[in-house]
Amino acid sequence: MKKTIQFLLGLFLIVIMIGCKEKTVNNLDFWSATLQALDLKLENNRYVKGNWDIQVQDQSQAEDESHRSLLIRQVHTNKDIKETITYSLQNNDRKKQISYIYVKSETNQENRYDYTVELQSIDESYQSYKITYQYEKYQSGNYKDGKEANGKLMIHNDDQIQYDNVPLLKEAISAYLSLLNDFQKEFDIHYQDYDFINLPELVNRLDIPELKTVSEEASLTTDYYEQVHINAKGFQLISFLKVNKDITSAQFGTYNVEREDYESNVTVTLEKRDIENCYDIIQKNDPDVNYAVYFDKEAAYVYLQSFTDQEIKDDSVDQASKASFILKTTNPSY
Questions:
Q1: Which pLDDT value is given to residue 239?
Q2: Mean pLDDT in residue range 122-145
Q3: Disulfide engineering: 243 pairs with which of 21, 135, 250, 300, CB 3.0-4.6 Å?
Q4: The 3-state secondary structure of the chain, one letter per residue
């Protein structure tokens, strides 16, 4: 009888100890647990080893020591492609944000192409995210071209995902998930033990279509292109107007298809004229020619500014024969 009591008492103590251990683990939120795991290996708030580059905010600079800001980054280089994947926890003025950032840089002779996909939380529960996509082209180190897009991603309570697609989203999600898995192994932390919503794991289950171009809905601009024409030197040229969605500014110029470069590309402002959908194109420098543009659904008709509003409106209805350029969203961009 005495042995039975001792056995039961011992079993009871084991259960209590296990319960206390689980309670201690679960009392830490994922942010604090991440810092706790990192602190064991940090030197001067950094961890640089292999393809890891991790930085943690110094305790003396933090308002909330258990929720300091940190950057967890991996860098992979393979021939002419460099990938940088970042998992970021930022606590500024006690506003906490999670960001996942994927940057792919491809080099081809003197050209470099940079692609960035970022997901940034916009709510306290880390279930709503802003998606940002950015493409940039550089030639001999100089910026040549770019494209941006925005979208949203939401995780509902039943783990259903609603999202806007952008180029490289599927590739980025896979990279985020690999980073998180590698991080948990490297630092012996298991996010399933904490209040962590593993966005990459949830989204990676989806069949995300691969996009080659930015959709009109996600793009920050509406892009109008001319039909390709050949100049006296035999080059294929395309005039274009890339208009910001608020219709206050635009990129205006001409692209050379063979050279893969711009003959001209200037930032302009759009100044409203008296009739609807008609704007003067204002350039910073004194241009040789001043233009105006009239928007009609998928078309942008570019006229000399000397045309009156009524002349522009009448001509746009009559095949726009007096327009200097006829640009359309449906024309190829090359």
A1: 95
A2: 93
A3: 250
A4: CHHHHHHHHHHHHHHHHHHHHHHHHHHCCHHHHHHHHHHCCCECCEEEECCEEEEECCHHHCCCHHHCCEEEEEEEEECCEEEEEEEEEEEECCEEEEEEEEEEEEEECCEEEEEEEEEEECCCCCCEEEEEEEEEEEECCEEEEEEEEEEEEEECCCCCEEECCCCCHHHHHHHHHHHHHHHHHHHCCCHHHCCCCCHHHHHHCCCCCCCCCCCCCCECEEEEEECCEECCCCCEEEEEEEEECCCCEEEEEEEECCCCEEEEEEEEEEEECCCCCEEEEEECCCCCCCEEEEEECCEEEEEECCCCHHHHHHHHHCCCCCCCEEEECCCCCC
In the numeric block, which tokens belong to residue 316? Answer: 């746009």
Query: Residue 253 corresponds to which amino acid?
Result: G
- Read off the tokens for 77: 């280089």
The pLDDT score that the predictor gives to residue 26 is 53
Query: Residue 67, Cβ neighbours under 10 Å: how many?
Result: 19
Beta-strand relationship, 52-56 and 46-49: antiparallel
Question: What does pTM read for this prediction?
Answer: 0.81
Work out the pLDDT band at 309, boundaries 50, 70, 90: very high
